[in-house]
Structure formats: C-alpha cells, structure tokens
Design goal:
heterodimer, A: mainly alpha, two-stranded antiparallel ribbon, B: alpha/beta, Rossmann fold, 14 helices, 44% helix
Chain lengths: 288, 404
C-alpha cells in the first residue's frame, strides 16, 4: 500500500471518528452523570438531521441557522422525555432506562419511516463549505475538514466544561451524592434534566453535521448507534475523555480495515470490543 | 392413551392435507403474500408500494373475473435470509398462502426459491436481481419477473463500454446480489473489449463509502461500477460527487438504480447517470394512467419497476389460476403461467420462458439535468430501447436444468 493511500485512509478514518466521538460523548455525559443508558441517542441524532431538513425546506433557514437552532429544539424534546418518563426510573435498575429509551428509538424511527420513506431526503452542503482541497495524497472536501475541526472543538469544550469548571464540579458531585449537593441549595433534579437535554442536543448537533454527508433518513441513527455503543464500552462507560479518544481512534482503525480487509469493516470494532471486555472490562479509560 | 391421541391427530391432519390437495382453490381463497423489505434500505423501491401494486392487480382482475376470491397479506423480511425463510415456511404451511411475490434482496430470494420448490407453491420474484434465479438455481415453481443482473449488465455495461468506458473498478455489495451483478457485468465488459482493474467488496448497508471511493480513484479506472443498490447506491453517488471523483475524469456507472434512488439523491448529483430499467411511469399512455392511480394510493410517489413488476406478476398469476381453476399445485400453476402469453398495461405483451424468466424489452435511460425536469419524478430521458429478444440472457446460456 502506498503512503499516499495510507494517508488518505487515515484522514477518512479521522472524519468518521469525529462522528463516533461526538455521539459517544453525548452518551458518556448522559451515562456518567445520570446513569441512564440512552438507547434513543441514534434516534435523537436522526431527529437532528430532520430538524435541519425542515428548517431548510419549511422555514428557509440554512445550515448555519440549523447548527444553532437544532440542538436546542431536539434538546427541548430531550428535556420533555426526561421530565415525563426517565425521571420516574432513576430508582430502578439501569435496564429500565435502557428499555424505555430503546422503545422510544423504535417508535421515533418507525414513525419517520412511515412518514418519509427509507430512501431519505437530500440536504446540500452549504455554499461556503463546498469545494475540495488538494492535499497531494487525496482530495479533502472542505465540508469534511470542517466536521473534523468542529467536532474536535465541541468535544474538548465539553470535556473542559465538565472536568475543569465549577458547574462541572457541581454536576459530578450531584451524581456522587445528590442529597448532599441539594442541601447546599442546588436544584439537583433541574440540573439532571438540563444535562440530559444537553446530551441529546449533542446528538442532534452530530445529526446536523451528518445531514449533508449522508441521506437524511430514518435509519441513519440505527446503523450508527450500535457502533457508538461499542465505542463507549471500549472507552469506558462514563469517561468523557475516554470516549473522545476512543471515538477518533476507532474511526482510524476502521478506516484502515476498509483498506486492508473491507469485508471486516463492519465488525472490526466489535472484535476490539470483545477483546477489551476480556482484558480490561472497565474499558480503556474507565476507572474502578 | 397419549399415543392414541397423537395417532388420531396425525390421521386427522393427513385427512385434512389430502382434502386440501383435492380442493380446487385451497382454503376457498387465493392468498398472495407480499414478502419484502418494509423498513430498511430497500423499503422505498418495494415496501408498501409493492403491497399497493398487488392489491391493484387483484382489484383489476376481480373486476373482470368474479370466480376467484383473492386476499393479499404482507410481511417484512428485513433483508435477512433466515427471517425470509421462516416467514415463507409459515405462510405456505400454516397460513394458506399460495404465492409469494416481490422478495427483493437476492440472498433472501434464493432462500424463498428453495422453500417454494420444496413445498410445491408459487414464487413470483420482482425485487431481486440475481440471474441465478433463472440460471443455476432455476425452479419449476419460480417466475422471475422484472429484471436481473444479466439484463442490467447487458444494458448499462454494454452501453458504457461501447462509448469508451473500457476500464472498470467495482464497488460491490458483499452478498449474493453484488457478486452476481459484478460477475455478469465483468463478462459483458470483457466480451466487448474492456478490462476490469479491480474491485472492493463492501458490507451491505454501509454509511460511509469514502474509503472505497478513494481505492477506486487510485485504481485509475475510467469507470467506477457500483454493483450495489438502494441506500448504498445513494450514499456512493453522493459521496463520489463530494470527493470530486467525477471531476478527476472518472465516471460512475450505477448498475442498479431505481427511480426512488434518483428521487433521494436529487437531480443535481444524479444527472447524467446512465441506467437500465424495464419500466418507467412516463413511458406511454398506459403506464401514465396506471401510475396516476398508483400515486394516488401511495401518497404521491410514482411506482418503481419493482412495484410495476409485482402488479403485472400478480395479474398474470391470477389469470393462470383462473384458467386452471385450481391453485393447489404450484408447479402446475407456474407451467400454466408459462403457457399463456402475458399481456398487461405496464410491460406490454410478453412471455415467460421455460427457465422462469419473464421476457420483455428493457430501456436505457439517462438521468435528466435539473433544468430539463418539469418537477418531482420527471427524471429520465430514453436513450435506447433494448428489444425483448436481446434484453435477457439467452435461454441456453443460463445453465438451468429445466431447459432441455
């Protein structure tokens, strides 16, 4: 394999890795702070892409507006879900949250499939990001370059917010001992609700990033979510930095597999997951 | 006592089975099962649209011939051969289904093909592509209606090689259909003086094709052949335009592109694609009239050739059952379908060959530029008509054991 082709595959791996990182980040935030395994994450990502599509076609608002508005719209949906349903499950086993969100995902996807069909809808790359850069070893579409950059920026700022700020410290404290934090006058239930909304907003943001690359289609989430779960498991449930690094890392591993043995590109991540679970069950970056 | 009861039950079952075999129309109703992808990447090219088409065929048939009572049911095979086999077995055995129709996804179609033969029922395929259904795997219980991989290769492949696209690289869906399509297209390319430089086999339902497109690009082949379908084709074409593949002088050949795919890609990215189909809603007055009825029932979507094939196949099946006045012996019904000439508003007059292949013309289309299109679904312009006797693989070449 020529070095040219190798660089090309590495870069493409990095692009896919940005999506894995962005999605597993939301999952890790929700799991780490709420202890909910959010199986609806893929559906919420799909919802993000659809909201962008509607904003463009019904309201005439383009990509940049979608990037701004969508996370809040879908995040608000998340807040409603958390208040009405998830909040009733915190005292029960993890499994119930998983089942509830899984059911929600199936309902959402089924409804969108019924309403919009499976071939999906086209969403164009915004004018300002069209075109390609000739890097010598490959053509990098400007849009994909933007996705890598934006995803890295969002991942790192989320990490910073949770691990290095006072607000993040409250959040982490509230998961350790909610009663104690509440006694300091902090409204813990509201904080948890907003955290779930933020995690869902991250998924929606990834959906907007994905809309111009893939079809805006009801299955776009379900084909990605399983991989993303594997990423979270490999990185260590609840570890923010772990899921970011693992997301990018596995994107690269998958990219290389696509070159050397494409038939296995769907499964390589799960093979790694199985090995990691055997050797280090808490995940690469997990504690305990 | 227990043993006696069991023996009694077995005897009763035998008596029932024997009774059914003698009945004219089993269960008093001709039951047709539409088995296809209802929710995944092939749901738009078949899906509920195929169910609508089957029901339209029943409606049109029973309006003229009131002797039959016909019922249509459907299920989702999820593109999984095991699921398809299980539903087919249950339908044929327990639910009194006489004929299964549509069944896209070649791997599932080949599995249902075996089930129908083992149980001596009828299988009319419209959605699947593999030419093996009427070749090595041909069966006296199966009719393959709409299209196949040989026909696609012969249409699109030949047209492209003839206009100078003589070196190819394949991006192939990694299952029975992709393999058959690549094999049949390669044969056409080589026969017409072209060369295949390489291929990459991609798992079904892949989201990101950029890695494979780069491999195709570095092969320096003039033509990148997409031996995939549905959502996979849509993603490949979109991403090829994104990575500037076509700007670098390479062209894409979508070997199996449906109307619903072009609708999903959008004309700005799909324009100029050359593709082969056997049905297009805007071919003539009859297809337009039928498609108008279809669109009214399907929320405005125009029919794909797969859905058209389901309609025509069901219509012809009912003619054969009515002429035999029996639906209980699957092989006999299929023999009758082969005996009477076919005639329907969508594919015109035609025949079904000894190997189960339905014969009709194929059309080479080019996707319109956005400026040429008058609106949604006005997507194709006709480049050439391939006459019925040239459109499909010659009877002798398929290796079907039914051909003597």
């Amino acid at each position: 394999m020529s070095t040219q082709a190798l660089f090309g595959q590495l870069l493409i791996g990095l692009i896919n890795g940005s999506f894995y990182a962005l999605l597993s980040l939301g999952l890790a935030v929700i799991f780490g702070l709420l202890n909910i395994i959010n199986f609806a994450h893929g559906a919420q990502y799909m919802l993000g892409a659809f909201v962008a599509y509607f904003l463009l076609n019904k309201a005439g608002l383009g990509y940049w507006w979608a990037l701004l508005i969508t996370p809040f719209v879908v995040g608000a949906v998340g807040v409603v879900i958390e208040r009405l349903m998830l909040s009733r499950l915190y005292k029960l086993d993890h499994l119930y949250g998983l089942l509830l969100t899984f059911g929600l995902a199936l309902i959402l996807e089924g409804a969108f499939n019924h309403a919009f069909g499976s071939a999906g809808m086209p969403y164009s790359i915004p004018e300002s990001l069209q075109g390609v850069q000739n890097l010598g070893f490959m053509f990098l579409p400007n849009y994909r370059g933007w996705v890598i950059f934006a995803s890295l920026a969002i991942c790192l700022s989320t990490w910073f917010l949770i691990e290095r700020t006072k607000l993040g410290a409250y959040l982490r404290a509230a998961t350790e001992n909610p009663t104690l934090v509440q006694s300091f006058g902090i409204n813990v239930p509201r904080m948890i609700t907003l955290t779930y909304g933020a995690g869902v907003g991250l998924a929606a943001l990834a959906g907007v990033f994905a809309a111009p690359i893939y079809q805006v289609s009801p299955q776009m989430g379900s084909s990605l979510i399983i991989v993303v779960f594997a990423v979270v498991v490999i990185g260590g449930m609840g570890s923010i930095m772990g899921s970011i690094l693992t997301g990018f890392g596995l994107g690269i591993v998958e990219g290389l597999t696509k070159y050397f043995y494409p038939e296995a590109s769907n499964t390589v991540i799960f093979v790694i997951m199985a090995i990691v679970l055997m050797i280090r069950p808490q995940g690469l970056f997990g504690q305990r | 006592m227990r043993f006696k009861l069991n023996a009694l039950a077995a005897a009763a079952a035998l008596a029932l089975a024997a009774g059914a075999a003698h009945a004219q129309i089993s269960g008093g109703v001709v039951k047709i099962g539409v088995l296809n992808d209802q929710s995944g990447l092939y749901a738009d090219l078949g899906g509920q649209g195929s169910v609508i088409a089957a029901k339209m065929a029943v409606e049109d048939f029973t309006a003229k011939d009131k002797s039959l009572k016909v019922e249509v049911i459907f299920a989702d095979h999820q593109n999984k051969p095991d699921v398809g086999t299980q539903i087919a077995g249950k339908w044929y055995d327990a639910e009194g289904v006489d004929a299964i129709v549509d069944v896209p996804t070649s791997s599932v179609a080949l599995a249902v093909n075996d089930v129908a033969r083992a149980k001596n029922k009828v299988f009319i395929d419209s959605g699947a592509a593999t030419s093996d259904l009427t070749g090595a795997k041909c069966s006296p219980n199966t009719v393959h209606w709409t299209y196949d991989t040989w026909m696609l290769a012969n249409g699109t492949g030949k047209a492209i090689v003839k206009t100078g696209g003589d070196t190819w690289f394949f991006i192939t869906a990694d299952y029975a259909f992709g393999a058959a399509l690549e094999r049949d297209t390669s044969a056409v390319i080589v026969k017409n003086g072209g060369k295949v430089l390489g291929d990459v086999k991609v798992p079904l339902n892949t989201q990101d094709f950029s890695s494979f497109l780069l491999q195709a690009q570095s092969s320096k082949a003039k033509i990148i052949g997409l031996a995939n379908a549905g959502g996979d084709t849509i993603n490949s074409i979109k991403q090829a335009s994104e990575f500037g593949i076509t700007k670098g002088g390479q062209s894409l050949a979508g070997l199996l592109v449906f109307l619903s795919d072009v609708h999903g890609i959008g004309l700005d990215k799909a324009q100029g694609l050359i593709l082969t189909e056997t049905f297009y809603w805007d071919l003539n007055d009859q297809t337009r009239a039928w498609s108008k009825r279809f669109a009214a029932l399907s929320g405005g979507k125009e029919p794909t050739m797969v859905q058209a094939g389901v309609y025509a196949g069901v219509l012809h099946y009912l003619k054969a059952v009515s002429s035999l006045k029996s639906d209980s012996d699957g092989a006999k019904v299929v023999a009758e379908m082969k005996k009477i000439p076919t005639d329907d508003p969508l594919f015109g007059k035609g025949t079904i060959r000894a190997d189960g292949r339905k014969i009709h013309p194929a059309y080479l289309f080019e996707v319109k530029k956005p400026s040429e299109s008058k609106g949604p679904y006005d997507y194709y312009k006709l480049r050439a008509t391939i006459p019925a006797d040239e459109a499909f693989r010659p009877l002798a070449d398929g290796g079907c054991s039914l051909v003597k």
